[in-house]
Amino acid sequence: MNEDQSSRPGVDRAAILLLALGEQDAAQVLRHLGAKDVQRVGAAMAQLSGVSREEVSDVLTNFSSTVEQQTSFGVGTDEYIRKVLVEALGADKAGSVIDRILRGKSSRGLEALKWMEARAVAEMLRYEHPQIISIVLSYLDSDQSAEVLTFLPENMRADILMRVATLDGVHPTALNELDEVLEKQFSGNGTSKTTAGFGGPKAAAEILNLIGNAQEALIMGQIAKVDEPLSQKLQDLMFVFDDLSDVDDRGMQELLREVPGDKLIIALKGADEKLRQKFFKNMSERAAQMMKDDLEAKGPVRLSEVEASQKEIIVTARRMAEEGRLALGGKGGEAYV
Questions:
Q1: pTM score > 0.70 for this model?
Q2: 54: Cβ–Cβ under 8 A, 6 or more apart, which residues?
Q3: Domains of the chain by range and CATH?
Q4: Non-local CB neighbours of 337 within 8 Å, separated by 6+ positions
């Protein structure tokens, strides 16, 4: 595989693959993706430019090779599906697709919320009981939940996050009843999350990690006034961009393979010198110099853009930590022993 193709993130490789398949076959693939994945892969397809014939060939050859190398002898069906989807879509995008294929049952009402704008979801939930809202936010992906929370009344946010943090699973009957209520308003196809691991402090911390810094501080302050131990637990689980300086060199090199260069440049505009040097140290000398030059040439960037890029990298780092590919030192992770 050539150097340019291997440097592309998984979502771009998926976009190249779908464009190469043609309209009908690509449509069949997209039908099996969730709302978030369709939106992100679709955006990548729209933004692709300068893709060479050789690069397309490399993507197709690599995907074909992965399929051919897997057989039913000594390879479980689930593992086969995981490997093929990760190769096709990249680990970040394949996660929710795998979840839909391998787990759960039909849950069309709740699943339909993933196709809605965050503002619309917030409007629908605004007058529901906070416990219902906390269940819905625990079901949605953490980045969507964080955005929904910003559209809810300010005086509700801390209460809702505390309920998410203290949610210890949801009885299947209650989840089905909620799903049926929502299904009266929406239609679609998907699968329901099982109640295991539903909600809890980790889910609340992930939402807080992805909400704006000002809102995060406000909500944490309100939670601390009501439940100091819970506030401390959430703080321990949270992970901020500056904490990447505690990641070991091997993990940092793995992370750099997953993070697009344009996102890293914007994220580093708001980083201190220590963290910048951590990234530079784990690049080739040529790549580090190019990154430094790009940073110097880059004009002023809105703080909101910097925070968005940093949070996107944090999401990638968390996913890699869950896969065992790096250890998040300090807050939000645990060291290897």
A1: no
A2: 2
A3: 3-102 (no CATH), 108-237 (1.10.220.30), 241-322 (1.10.220.30)
A4: none
